[in-house]
Design a protein that fits this description.
The chain is α+β, with helices and mostly antiparallel strands. The protein is built from 13 helices and twelve strands. The protein has a five-stranded mixed sheet. Strand 10 and strand 11 form a beta hairpin. Helix 10 crosses helix 11. The N and C termini lie far apart (43 Å).
Length: 358
Amino acid sequence: MSARKIVHIDMDAFYASVEQRDDPSLRGRPVVVAWRGNRSVVCAASYEARRFGVRSAMPAVRAERLCPEAIFIPPDFTRYRAVSRQTREIFKLHTDLIEPLSLDEAYLDVTENKTGLPTATRVAIAIRKQIWDELSLTASAGVAPNKFLAKIASDWKKPNGLFVIQPTEIEDFLQPLEVGRLPGVGKVTGERLEKLNIRTVGDLRGLTIEDLEERFGRYGTRLHQLARGIDENPVVPNRPTQSISAEDTFERDVLLSETADLIARLAAKTWEASRKETRIARTVVLKLKTADFRILTRSLTPPIPPSSQQQLVDIALQLRDRVETDPGQRFRLVGVGLSNFRDPDPTNPTDPNPALFD
């Protein structure tokens, strides 16, 4: 087991909290950060809106049905990026080992810290206080010996909470944890584990590494390690995003001609996620998985990168039209992604500035 001290900082309902901070009339009210429209998805929801079941990445029309009193605010990513940079400056006062995951969360390795604080917990307390004092925003923090445990911990007492997992507490903490809390265990893997009567991490530990590798391949090894609290992945500063995608598995296999609505929704999710990036994605990728588990991909790098959600939707649907297959072929999964991220070139008039499309 590594001797690292990792802090995961997660800003609370970040976009919505910035809006409520900057407009006092929004405080205490259900705020949904999203464009209105059938193809728009929720970027963020205040905790007042979450009480009605509104969640990020949910279709905006569904959020409106769940919370008719919600106040919809168009996202202002230029402002959110500016606030995010301010939080990073606070992080840098404590360590140079910072791995941003998005505008609103980051891992910090504080095994050695700049301020001489004796424990990682003290560092987390100091960071949260500075964020509140300087930015009037709250952040939750998780402290643990590795990244995956720190990320789980930061969610444990949200909002505005701090949770610490000491090395001696890992086993007791993990045993009753729902297996779905482990990174990489999504709906499909969760259902496969459910069929094996695996519901908690303690249950998972009953399977040998050989059993897991036979059933889940290379990810089986990772499951075996996570169930024992092992994660040797280091905090990697300034790791550039390689790709962003969203995918979904159908409840029943469908024809290619029936995928348009889901492709549009997934493209919308991918576009919203990409707005957290300062770099520009130049390639659009469509992924399809057939009923017999064959994977088909189509990609396009247009002369001018997509500059709006609608353009991404249109390109993804064009890629679908390039798929040549038997008309009766059915599909079980579809995904839409953006890749080939590059820094914007200010000298190229065809290179869009991300801030122009916020």
